[in-house]
Each structure stands twice: as structure tokens, then as C-alpha cells.
């Protein structure tokens, strides 16, 4: 059975690797150590720090900068048809120096194109942006969309942005005109309703609570209705909450439509048609419980498999999606739903298939 | 088919709700701005709230977030509990149905006989 991995975290070995891709004065800043990159505001507690313990990075961060290692441990080991590179360096985390953050996003995109995308046709690329400057983000999307392996815009979920706000519309406009999808991934800054909690395990358990508001914000503020061709991917944010959010939004819509009449469909219908959620980290539930959840969602089109390689909460495609699920459902989760989302087909081990999907 | 004389024509006004009983069943009446009288089941199809406490209003429309239009004044009945909206023209909700929840006002045929409002059940 084919497997497409929707969430794989490539990285650089050092932020100084970005210096050659930056214009001055930022090149000098990074080369000179004026900024050392983001530092997570907590300690990792797993045996391999933020990574699987069999994927060590030189600086101890939750990252992998070695393509060969990823190829051996992930792409070849699981015979993946595609792996979607989602990064974990998100310049939107900078709350100041917007020009610097925008330049970092562009530099990172160029770095990934050269050091990752070019090395393996199985990679699908994401455009990284500085979402705090939406017009600049839109220009970066326009620039990177020309790359044949780029299929989506990645919007990082930080602690102070709900992407339905009208100020972010240029980003969705740009994704729409370039026929890219839009994915959301948490960051080391993402918070639940009361912050990160007091422990890493709390912070990690709260991540879905940073994702649900994005879905609510996008639908309530008309992004789904304004861009009927856009589709949205929630990465690593849980999935068993979707029935609740759909039902709750439907009730809120029925009783409060007078305030938000730009919403033209039931929110649950919007979700089933155009929202996708990656499965990792799977909750350790039985096959029966998987099928109950899918029944409650009303479709098996929504879930897409991801590993989150190289991070410690990795999901193995051979173990995470129970084999007792119906073959057709398992195939949808492991490959078909994501293949349709990213517009890839058939023989994905060649560049041809990615280009043919253009 | 039974015909029930339920109230006087003058008792039914635009923008207002008049409750009558046919047997033990409540029915609410309202006059559309076009002049037609509507008679609908007196309980909300959602959770059974007494619609005589609801309101007759217009409703909003929009194709652009944060820009509202308003129209259909006198043609919308809103439930007094949850505010669900129904059109008094056809009894349909202003929101799409889902498979698990189909909501319709029960519509009764209305005749005017002299100054009497007659509901057909």
C-alpha cells in the first residue's frame, strides 16, 4: 500500500547555513551571530530530546539536517511515495523586525529548495512565510509557487494569530491564485487557552487547543467561502476533536447566522469537503474506535497519515493506522486522501508525476 | 380536512405573532408584508420552544465579511430560545439542513372567510 507522509521536519544544521541565502544586512547579522535562532521555552523530556533517540542532531535540537539519514530511516525504510517537508523554523515567531523575518523565510525556502527538494523527487515542498507581513508573505508565495515540488503554504500557529482575521487575506489570495493548499502547524510558541501549562506534557497536550481556534476562525471569518478552491490541512493537531467542532459550529451557525451570513454552508460541510487533519500523534485507540470516529466525522476523506519524523512522537505507518480498518479506508488515510489534496498521482517516484500534476 | 375558525382577521398583524389553539395544538399566525396570512405550528421544530414568544423580523445577507445587508422584514420567524431563523414564506430555515437535523416549520393552509381566519388541518 502506498504511503504519503504529510508532515516531515527537515532543518538546517545551523542557522548560519542560511547566511548565503540572505541579502545584506541580514547576511552579516546571521553570519556574525547577531541572532541565534529560536529557542524553545521548555526542556524536552524524551530519551532523544525532541527527536527520536535514533535521530541525533548535532546541536541537540528537534531537527534533522542530514538528507541521507532521512532517506535511509524514513523515505526508503517505509517506501514512502512522497514526504511533505514542513520545516520547524518559522520566522512568524519573530514579533518584531518584520523585514528580517521575511528575509529569513525567503532564505529558508531557498535553502530547502537546494538542500532538500532538489535531492529527492519524493519531497513535496511548503512555502514558509512571515505571516505578520501578509503582503510580503504573498510575494514570497508568488515567488516560490513556481517551484514544481511546492504544493502548499505553511502557516505556523503561534500564540497571537487567528488566521481568519481579514488582515491575513493576502496570504490566502496568494495561495488561491497559485493553486496551493494551506497547512497549519504548531510551533514552540503555540499556546492553549491558559498558556502552555506548567509541564512539557501539558504543553504537548494543549496543542490541539491551539488548532481548533484556527478552524473556527477560518470558517467564521469567511475564508472557506471566499476561496472555494482552497483546502486546508491541520498538521499534528489531533483529529478526534473534529466531530465536536463540526457539531458545535453548526449549532452556533444556526443560532447566530444573522451575524455571519457570509458563511454559506454548514460549517460541518465545509470541514468535510475541504479540511484535512493529519493523524500523528495518533491516540492509542482501537480499530473500532477509529471507525466510530470516522462515522462521527461523516466521511473517511478527512484523515491523512503523517509520521512527524524525526520527532520523538513519531508514528510508524505500519503500526499507527490499525490493520483492522477496512482496506479502502486505510488506503485513504495512508495515501489517497493526501494524494488528492496535493495533486499527486500514480508513479510518484519520479519528478514527472509531480510536474504532470501541474 | 377540517376547517377551524381561529380568530378575526384584524387579530393578525405584520411583524407580530398571534397564538391560537386547534384542539390542544398551538398554532401561531402572522401576516406577511405582502398581506398573506401564515399559520405555522406553535412549537419550534428544534426543541419545542413556544414560538409565540419568538420574534418576527427581517434577516441579514452578505457576500463579504463584516458587510451586512438586511431585508425580508416581516418574513422571518426566530425561535425565542436559540434564535434559529425560519422563513414564514415557506417554513424553511435560513441555514442548510444536515443529514442529522432537518428543521421545518409546520405550515397550515389559511383561508379568510369574511372577517374570520380559518385554518385547515
TrEMBL record, chain A:
TM segment ranges: none
A single GO molecular-function term is: carboxy-lyase activity
- Source domain of life is Bacteria
Q: Where is the Amidohydrolase-related domain?
A: 66-343
| Entry keywords, A to Z | Hydrolase, Lyase
Give a GO biological-process term.
Answer: secondary metabolic process
Q: Which residues form the signal peptide?
A: none
InterPro entries xref list: ACMSD (IPR032465), Amidohydro-rel (IPR006680), Metal_Hydrolase (IPR032466)
One Pfam family this sequence matches: Amidohydro_2
Task: List GO terms (cellular component aspect).
Answer: cytoplasm
Q: Which PANTHER family match?
A: 2-AMINO-3-CARBOXYLMUCONATE-6-SEMIALDEHYDE DECARBOXYLASE, ISO-OROTATE DECARBOXYLASE (EUROFUNG)
Name listed for the protein in its UniProt record = Amidohydrolase
Q: What organism does the UniProt record list as the source? A: Hansschlegelia zhihuaiae
TrEMBL record, chain B:
Give a GO molecular function annotation for the protein: 2 iron, 2 sulfur cluster binding
Ranges for domain Rieske:
4-119
> Does the entry feature the keyword Flavoprotein, yes or no?
no
Q: Is Repeat there in the keyword field?
A: no
User: Keywords, A to Z?
Assistant: 2Fe-2S, Iron, Iron-sulfur, Metal-binding
- Extract the Pfam families matched here: Rieske
The superkingdom of the source organism is Bacteria
Family annotation (PROSITE patterns): RIESKE
Q: What is this protein called?
A: 2Fe-2S ferredoxin
From what organism does this protein derive? Hansschlegelia zhihuaiae
Amino acid at each position: 500500500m502506498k504511503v504519503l507522509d504529510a508532515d516531515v521536519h527537515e532543518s538546517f544544521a545551523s542557522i548560519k547555513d542560511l547566511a548565503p541565502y540572505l541579502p545584506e544586512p541580514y547576511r552579516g547579522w546571521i553570519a556574525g551571530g547577531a541572532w541565534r535562532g529560536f529557542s524553545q521555552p521548555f526542556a524536552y523530556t524524551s530519551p532523544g530530546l525532541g527527536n527520536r533517540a535514533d535521530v541525533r542532531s548535532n546541536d541537540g535540537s528537534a531537527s534533522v539536517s542530514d538528507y541521507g539519514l532521512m532517506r535511509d530511516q524514513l523515505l526508503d525504510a517505509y517506501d514512502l511515495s512522497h514526504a511533505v517537508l514542513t520545516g520547524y523554523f518559522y520566522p512568524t515567531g519573530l514579533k518584531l523586525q518584520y523585514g528580517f523575518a521575511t528575509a529569513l523565510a525567503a532564505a529558508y525556502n531557498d535553502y530547502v529548495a537546494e538542500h532538500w527538494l532538489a535531492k529527492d523527487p519524493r519531497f513535496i515542498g511548503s512555502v514558509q512565510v512571515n505571516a505578520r507581513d501578509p503582503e510580503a508573505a504573498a510575494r514570497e508565495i508568488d515567488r516560490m509557487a513556481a517551484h514544481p515540488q511546492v504544493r502548499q503554504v505553511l502557516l505556523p500557529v503561534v500564540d497571537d494569530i487567528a488566521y481568519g482575521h481579514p488582515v491575513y487575506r493576502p496570504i490566502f489570495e496568494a495561495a488561491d491564485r497559485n493553486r496551493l493548499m494551506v497547512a497549519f502547524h504548531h510551533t514552540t510558541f503555540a499556546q492553549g487557552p491558559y498558556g502552555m501549562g506548567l509541564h512539557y506534557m501539558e504543553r504537548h497536550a494543549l496543542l490541539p487547543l491551539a488548532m481548533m481556534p484556527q478552524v473556527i476562525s477560518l470558517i467564521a471569518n469567511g475564508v472557506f467561502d471566499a476561496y472555494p478552491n482552497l483546502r486546508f490541512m491541520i498538521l499534528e493537531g489531533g483529529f478526534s476533536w473534529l466531530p465536536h467542532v463540526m457539531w458545535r459550529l453548526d449549532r452556533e451557525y444556526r443560532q447566530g447566522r444573522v451575524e455571519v451570513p457570509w458563511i454559506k454552508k454548514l460549517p460541518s460541510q465545509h470541514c468535510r469537503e475541504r479540511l484535512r487533519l493529519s493523524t500523528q500523534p495518533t491516540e492509542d485507540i482501537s480499530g473500532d474506535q477509529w471507525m466510530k470516529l470516522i462515522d462521527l466525522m461523516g466521511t473517511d476523506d478527512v484523515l491523512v497519515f503523517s509520521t512527524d519524523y524525526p520527532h520523538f512522537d513519531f508514528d510508524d505507518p505500519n503500526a499507527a493506522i490499525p490493520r483492522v480498518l477496512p482496506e479502502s479506508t486505510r488506503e485513504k488515510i495512508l495515501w489517497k486522501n493526501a494524494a488528492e489534496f496535493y495533486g499527486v498521482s500514480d508513479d510518484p517516484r519520479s519528478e514527472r508525476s509531480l510536474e504532470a500534476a501541474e | 380536512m377540517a376547517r377551524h375558525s381561529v380568530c378575526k382577521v384584524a387579530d393578525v398583524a405584520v411583524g407580530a405573532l398571534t397564538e391560537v389553539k386547534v384542539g390542544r395544538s398551538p398554532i401561531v399566525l402572522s401576516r406577511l408584508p405582502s398581506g398573506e396570512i401564515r399559520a405555522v405550528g406553535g412549537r419550534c421544530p428544534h426543541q419545542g420552544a413556544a414560538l409565540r414568544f419568538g420574534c418576527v423580523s427581517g434577516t441579514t445577507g452578505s457576500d463579504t465579511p463584516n458587510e451586512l445587508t438586511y431585508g425580508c422584514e416581516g418574513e422571518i420567524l426566530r425561535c425565542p430560545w436559540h434564535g434559529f431563523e425560519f422563513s414564514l414564506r415557506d417554513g424553511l430555515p435560513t441555514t442548510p439542513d444536515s443529514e442529522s437535523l432537518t428543521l421545518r416549520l409546520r405550515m397550515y393552509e389559511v383561508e379568510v372567510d369574511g372577517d374570520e381566519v380559518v385554518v385547515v388541518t
